[in-house]
Design a protein that fits this description.
Length: about 400
């Protein structure tokens, strides 16, 4: 049976009310019910029941789901769309195009090629990856102290570690200032989130199991919303998986830090779907940034930006339509005081960066923890005692 792994009770729980439709980015850009949560659930049920074949049209409707999970909190019947779409994507997945995600050395090679292409101006402007460093900076980690408040592990991951290392440095700096001993996960330890999103199930579960094996019982700090959401879903055996802004929000009050005066700079906060719809912890970013900056929300109920794992590459045209809507919503809150757009997910940051209008030249897209580090005067401030060469990659 096709889609046998989908629980029929999950399918039957949808009452076709359509209240999820306005929260679905693919429905918003197409107006087509087959590209809505309701329509996709009906298609899966019909294919599973043998009423319709799994033809190209059905495949397209299902594969075009960004997996943003905007439909989850919007559904009054608590339909578990996440449990429906995950096995469907696994079954539809073709692994051939995505093997580059499976091997770290391929990813490293891709990163080196990307860095070179960017320097030679050969990289298409709309390709959703940030400017990549040719030589990555070593992460500087203060030596552990007995007087500190405990130990946390910074989960380095793959994309974050190679493309957003400055976010890791800011994370280490802020957590150290809050009084925590920070240890780093091994370089190259990938959680499998991108694989799972692409339906490459077996490598995804092996990678996740490896994280569990190495860090069982630890407090794992994650600064990529996508990785955090994936690890939280598979957190059994891990001590605690917590987004860095959630952790800072919980512990900033107890810290003896002088927070200094509030900046006049304005930050527009983009809520990553994986923080908002899956982890439910997006408000922590607003709370923490509000201590240091004027914060503005984007008035679109957290609609997805179209990044979605490799979606922005695999479904470039849809992703462009989706991000154009996001940019319109961002534009509506911009004025001369806005200096930053913050995003807690590398995919979203890359997507916003790749599709930013030229009129946004004065704006910087940053991770919120970088803004906290900047406000605390921690950015690029490296203590005299280090664990040594933390970059063992
Ligand atoms: S998924 Fe939920 S909100 Fe959407 S149509 Fe079904 S019951 Fe209604
Ligand atoms: S996960 Fe996102 S794109 Fe997919 S059906 Fe739900 S709201 Fe639409």
């Amino acid at each position: 049976m096709i889609f046998a792994a989908v629980d029929p009770d999950d399918l039957a729980s949808c009452v076709s009310c359509g209240l999820c439709l306005p929260h679905c980015p693919t429905y918003r850009i197409t107006g087509n019910d087959s590209q809505s949560p309701r329509g996709r659930i009906e298609l899966v049920a019909a294919v599973r029941g043998g009423e319709i074949p799994l033809d190209d049209g059905v495949r397209h409707s299902l594969n075009s789901c960004v997996q943003c999970m905007g439909c989850l909190p919007a559904c009054p019947s608590s339909v578990r769309y996440d449990r429906i779409i995950a096995p469907v994507i696994d079954e539809l997945a073709s692994t051939s195009a995505r093997k580059v995600m499976v091997k770290r050395f391929l990813f490293r090679a891709l990163t080196a090629i990307a860095a070179l292409a960017q320097r030679l101006h050969l990289m298409p402007r709309r390709f959703p990856i940030p400017p990549v460093a040719v030589r990555m900076r070593r992460l500087r980690v203060p030596a552990a102290s007995k007087n500190n408040r405990g130990e946390v592990i910074l989960f380095r991951g793959c994309v974050m570690d190679m493309w957003y290392r400055q976010v890791h440095q800011a994370t280490v700096d802020v957590l150290s200032r809050l009084g925590y001993n920070v240890r780093l996960s091994d370089p190259g330890m990938c959680c499998g989130a991108l694989h799972a999103h692409a339906g490459i199930a077996e490598p995804a579960s092996k990678l996740t199991a490896n994280v569990r094996k190495c860090h069982s019982g630890s407090i794992l700090i994650v600064n990529s919303a996508g990785c955090g959401a994936h690890l939280l879903r598979h957190a059994e055996g891990l001590g605690e998986v917590v987004d860095v802004m959630e952790f800072v929000s919980r512990h900033l009050d107890e810290s003896p830090l002088d927070l200094g005066s509030r900046s006049d700079d304005v930050v527009v906060v983009h809520d990553a779907c994986h923080l908002r719809n899956i982890q439910g912890s997006h408000l922590a970013t607003h709370r923490v940034l509000d201590l240091f900056y004027e914060v503005r929300s984007i008035p679109d109920d957290g609609l997805c930006c179209g990044a979605g794992g490799a979606y922005a590459i695999d479904h470039a045209a849809s992703a462009k339509h989706i991000v154009d809507r996001k940019n319109e919503a961002i534009q509506s809150v911009l004025d001369a005081q806005v200096r930053y757009i913050s995003s807690g997910n590398p995919g979203c940051s890359g997507q916003l960066q790749a599709h930013r209008p030229q009129t946004w030249n004065a704006l910087t897209i940053v991770h919120p923890i970088e803004l906290v580090a900047r406000a605390l005067g921690s950015e690029d401030r490296h203590q005299s005692h280090h664990q040594g060469d933390a970059d063992r990659s």
